[in-house]
Structure formats: structure tokens, C-alpha cells
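Input record (one chain):
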Amino acid sequence: TALIGGNKLIHEKIDTGLQKNYCASFNSIALISGVKIKNGSDISSHYYHLYADSERDSVLIGKFTGRNAFPLVIRYNSIEDMIKTIKGIEENFCCLRIMNNDEDDYLLSNIIDAVTKPLIFKELDENPVHYLAVINTLIRNHTITPGDTSVGIIGLDNSTIRLTALLVKSGYMKVLGHDSNERQMMSFENRKGLATTVENVISNSDILMIMDEKISHDYINSFRAGQVIISGINSDMGDSAVLKDKGIREFIKIEETESLSLLPALINAIIVSSKRYFSDDMLISIADLVSKQMEKKYDLPGLYSGISKEIENLIVKEKNISTPENEF
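The corresponding structure, as predicted from the sequence alone:
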């Protein structure tokens, strides 16, 4: 009886325009993954792996933001199908988080154009902020000047291509990259990266990111003295002592799951920003803030740190500065 009576009250409040205060959709996050259907392939196992990751992240969001989070895995034939599905469900949520999607970045940008709710992308926002924060920390630790520094990336994907745009905008001298996928190389060049061979990336980079699991150990042996190596791959790159003997300045190992510690903060930030997506400038500012809290071990601030509130305050401050009444 109480439930039915309460529901009637909610309908009355909705009629008076107070739906934001009484409907959970205004406090709910969609965690959307995409599985592209391919002829003759069994996607069932991959489907549930994605769902399991979404369930993990929904627990973190619920605990550290107080918002409801719902995992959704969409099977689709084309990106247009996925966009149509997202448009059909977006009114049920206050924010959409797109994750684990292997579409090209320019296709993912079509989602931004199509929907009206705030968006956050694991590959285009969370990972690049993590990578840039690590790079900002290491240049501070080693007193390196960005304008005199070349960054090389072996293994291009949506995350490292977005990182390229952030590095270029942050004033790094140049960003070199290589990948066996020609379309990724084209996207990389569109972000003002310099596509070249693996050999050229290694020999001309001060900071070298290894993001391709298939990199040969023959290339690893060609690392040069003075380089900082950042590895985002699972395979072993050899004894760190051997790398040190080769004159490698520092070897940094990063894990993709580490960026989860920033997820609640970024969810809250995009919602309070009143923006629909994170711009390059917003991500650069967040990475700078995160970097200042990182130690020499390059660990991201933990979920129980105060980083979430600090990022929110940063975004709100920038939001107020950018409003027309405060421009002059």
C-alpha cells in the first residue's frame, strides 16, 4: 500500500515538473560496451567478458558516486545500429559511459554528435588521462622540457591516438608512432602525429611507449641510452636490470585497470561540467591535477583519496570562468 501511494505521489510530482527529484533515471549511469557481429564468429564468450567488466565498474560507480550504474552490452552490425540503440535508451540515464569498443575514433565521435546526454569514453578519456598523467610525472621527476621532448608510441589504438592530440596540445616537440593497421596510422596522423617505422620510433624518441603485444625482442634490444620506457603490454620485456645496463633512464610499467581509480571522479566531473563530453583542454587540466598527486612510483591516487572532489572543483572552476558573464 505504501509503495502504491508513494508511486501516486511521484506521478503528481512529475506533473509539477519535479521529475529530476523523483525519478532514478536522473541519477543513473549506462555502462555501454559494443560487440560487432562478424560472420561465422562466436561472440558469446567475448560478450560475457565485457559484461563482467561492466559489472565490476558498476560496483565502483555505485560505491564512490552514489549513483546507479547499469551494464549494457550491445550487439550490432554497423556503428549506425549501435548509435540508434544508444539514442533509443539515453533518456533513461543522466550519463553514458562507452567502453570496450574497437571502432575507429572518428566513428566513435559520431556517437557524440548523435546523443544529448553527457558522455565519457574509457578509450578516449579515461586511458589517455592516465597516460598523460604518467608522462607529466616522469618529465617532472627527470626535469625534462616538453618542448624539447619527442614521444614515441608503438601500438596505436583509440587511447594512444587521443593521447597524441593531448601531447601535441601540451607542447611536446613531436609524437612518433607505428602500427600495422593502416587506418590507425591515418587517424594518428590526423591528430598531428608522425607515422613512421618501428625503427624510427625507437631511435628518435626520448619517451617510448610500448603498447603492442607483438613487438619483437629484437626491437627491445635496440632501445637506446637515456630513453624512458613506458610499457602497457602484458608480455615480459626482459630484466629491468638489463635495461638499466643499457642506459635506459627509467622503465615504467602501467596497467589499463589502474585508470579505474579515476572513473568515479570523471563520471562526477562530466555531470557537474554541464558539458556533453570531455574536450582536450579539460583532459589536459585533469591530467595535470592527477600528476601533481602521483609519486615517483607513478601510482594514480586511490579511490579513497580526495582526487574526485578536486577534479570536480577544477571542472566547476573552469566552467565558471568560461561562462559569458565572467568573461570580462
